[in-house]
């Protein structure tokens, strides 16, 4: 597999303040909370052709924190923010399976089973979006990770591509935990041996999920039109309407 340092350099996105921001394919990116972006970061994102940001979080998660930079409306002008939550956080089966939040690819297949319409709505939003698109959750690892794997499947990515994408996301948020002043309650910073052990334990389940799902078939079964699927493929090939 391509060295992770080289992959980070190739797929990493440098928008000021952005955490765990990576190119998925074509004109579609993923990242952590958009509230981490500075005004300069929003302008850089716009200059790179992004016109749509899709928020995968529940409404309760989208609150500004004291440590977030202040961003005026002018800096965000020209970029549509679309709220498209992927889950029902009070679903009893969901919380029994994953605990406080999704954090393991072993649960991705259950997630898709529990919330098919919500996930399909994300892809419809990407298909309909103006310009290049950023999908984001909180950490930029698992909810955006499911979307990334499914987009990679549509784009014909290899298993190595899928594993690399997950590792970039896992390492990206782990590095954020390293420098953040407040330790994360459920996701503490891991040193390299501990992180590698965690990644090794998750690679098989990530690939099992990838091979368990035909993304195009899933999306069409859940309401995405043939035109929508074609628009998705065009974005993954780099075609985006300003």
Automatic annotation (TrEMBL):
Q: Which residues does the UniProt record annotate as the domain Tyrosine specific protein phosphatases?
A: 106-150
In terms of PROSITE patterns, this protein maps to:
TYR_PHOSPHATASE_1, TYR_PHOSPHATASE_2
The record's listing under Pfam families reads:
Y_phosphatase3 (PF13350)
The record ties this protein, via InterPro entries, to: Prot-tyrosine_phosphatase-like, Tyr/Ser_Pase_IphP-type, Tyr_Pase_AS, Tyr_Pase_dom
| Origin: domain of life | Bacteria
Q: What are this entry's molecular-function GO terms?
A: phosphoprotein phosphatase activity
Q: What's the protein here called?
A: Tyrosine-protein phosphatase
């Amino acid at each position: 597999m391509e060295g992770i340092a080289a992959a980070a350099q190739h797929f990493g996105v440098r928008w000021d303040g952005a955490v765990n921001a990576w190119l998925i394919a074509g004109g579609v990116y993923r990242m952590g909370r958009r509230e981490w972006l500075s005004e300069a970061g929003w302008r850089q994102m716009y200059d790179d052709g992004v016109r749509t940001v899709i928020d995968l979080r529940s409404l309760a998660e989208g609150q500004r924190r004291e440590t977030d930079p202040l961003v005026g409306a002018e800096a965000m002008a020209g970029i549509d923010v679309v709220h498209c939550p992927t889950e029902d956080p009070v679903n009893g089966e969901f919380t029994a399976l994953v605990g406080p939040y999704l954090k393991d690819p072993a649960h991705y297949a259950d997630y898709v089973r529990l919330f098919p319409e919500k996930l399909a709505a994300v892809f419809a939003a990407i298909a309909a979006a103006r310009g290049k698109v950023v999908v984001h959750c909180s950490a930029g690892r698992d909810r955006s990770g499911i979307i990334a794997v499914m987009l990679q499947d549509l784009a014909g990515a290899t298993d190595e591509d899928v594993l690399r994408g997950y590792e970039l996301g896992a390492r990206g948020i782990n590095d954020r935990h390293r420098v953040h002043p407040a330790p994360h309650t459920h996701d503490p910073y891991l040193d390299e041996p501990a992180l590698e052990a965690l990644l090794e334990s998750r690679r098989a389940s990530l690939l099992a999920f990838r091979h368990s799902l035909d993304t195009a078939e899933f999306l069409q079964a859940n309401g995405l039109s043939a035109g929508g699927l074609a628009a998705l493929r065009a974005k993954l090939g780099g075609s985006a309407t300003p």
